[in-house]
UniProtKB/TrEMBL annotation:
Cellular compartments per GO CC: cytosol; HAUS complex; microtubule; spindle
A single GO BP: cell division
Domain of life where this protein originates: Eukaryota
UniProt feature coiled coil, ranges: 221-317
Coiled coil keyword on record: yes
Renumbered residue ranges of the record's region Disordered: 180-205
Protein name: HAUS augmin-like complex subunit 1
Keywords for this protein: Cell cycle, Cell division, Coiled coil, Cytoplasm, Cytoskeleton, Microtubule, Mitosis
Keyword Coiled coil: yes
Pfam families: HAUS1 (PF25762)
Biased composition (Low complexity): 183-194
UniProt similarity note: Belongs to the HAUS1 family.
InterPro entries: HAUS1
Length: 320
């Protein structure tokens, strides 16, 4: 009985598929024989899918192999060109960059830490260094071992500087305290510093007579103030009497003009007394004797000059 054309075509297609699969299996298992298996439609489809994937993988592998061969050829040609050119440091830098790009993250962090430590410790290694020069690891080791000694030296210097600073501060405070005892208080307007050296005008002043005259003026001023108050009371009483309509009486005693003159005299005496008091205060309680006062002024001037020299020496030490 003759089969239909469609069945014949299907059988021919299946036979061709089996031949292709068997050929692939024979190449795959060569030189071993193909293992036995059940020949049916499901097995055929499974083997066809495996064959397709295997062929695709082999094709990809072949393409990669060819690409690597081409890269190797190009690298060989570039190497020959580089060897023909004079050497420089650019290829070494590119090689180092390439090596660094292939490092894992932990190795990159370790390399960065090593580079930072080398830079901070001053371990510079130039490419032109001779082979006998110690490497960067040896330099790092020596620098790290020297760190405690350097730290101790720096701490000792800092402590010495602190001690010197505290000593200078104490001496400056003592100097300022001594100077404040000799300098006048700028907030007191009535206080003036004594003259640095006795002038010819001051040597002709009789301090004892000046003091007695001042006391006499003070007594006169007090008496005049009392009389002025008495006269003011009498004037007020007379004014009250005149306002009350009392008969005019002859006033015995000084007139208003005399009182005004006396009051002006009292004011002048008070001003003279204040001027004399200020002049006495300017000498800060110096003794009345002229020679003793002059010796006291010279002694104070000498001590002040010594303190100034001491202050200048301290400032020079601080500036140095």
């Amino acid at each position: 009985m003759q089969a239909s054309p469609s069945k014949a075509r299907a059988q021919a297609l299946e036979s061709h598929s089996w031949s292709v699969v068997l050929s692939w299996l024979s190449n795959l298992y060569y030189p071993s024989p193909i293992p036995s298996f059940e020949c049916n439609t499901t097995t055929l489809r499974a083997l066809q899918s495996l064959m397709t994937e295997n062929l695709a993988v082999e094709r990809t592998r072949e393409l990669l192999y060819n690409a690597r061969i081409e890269e190797l050829v190009l690298a060989t040609q570039n190497g020959e060109q580089i060897r023909a050119q004079p050497p420089d440091g650019s290829d070494a830098g590119s090689l180092l960059s390439l090596l660094e790009s292939y490092l894992p993250p932990s190795s990159k962090r370790a390399l960065d830490s090593l580079a930072n430590s080398a830079v901070l410790l001053g371990c510079h290694l130039s490419p032109s260094s001779p082979a006998s020069t110690p490497g960067i690891l040896q330099n790092l080791q020596s620098q790290i071992l020297a760190l405690p000694r350097q730290t101790f030296n720096l701490e000792s210097q800092i402590s010495a500087i602190d001690t010197l600073t505290s000593t200078l501060s104490t001496e400056i405070a003592q100097t300022e305290q001594c100077l404040s005892g000799w300098s006048a208080d700028p907030s007191d307007p009535e206080t003036t510093s004594p003259p640095s050296s006795p002038s010819p005008t001051n040597t002709r002043i009789d301090y004892s007579a000046l003091h007695d005259q001042t006391r006499q003026h003070q007594r006169e001023a007090n008496q005049l103030m009392l009389k002025s108050a008495e006269y003011k009371d009498r004037i007020a009483a007379l004014e009250r009497q005149g306002a009350g309509g009392a008969s005019a009486q002859t006033i015995q005693g000084p007139t208003l003009t005399d009182l005004a003159i006396k009051q002006d005299l009292v004011e002048r005496k008070k001003k003279q007394a204040e001027a004399l008091e200020k002049k006495i205060l300017a000498f800060h309680g110096l003794p009345p004797d002229l020679e003793v006062s002059r010796a006291e002024v010279l002694r104070a001037q000498t001590e002040l000059d010594a303190l100034k020299r001491r202050r200048d020496e301290l400032f020079e030490k601080m500036g140095g």
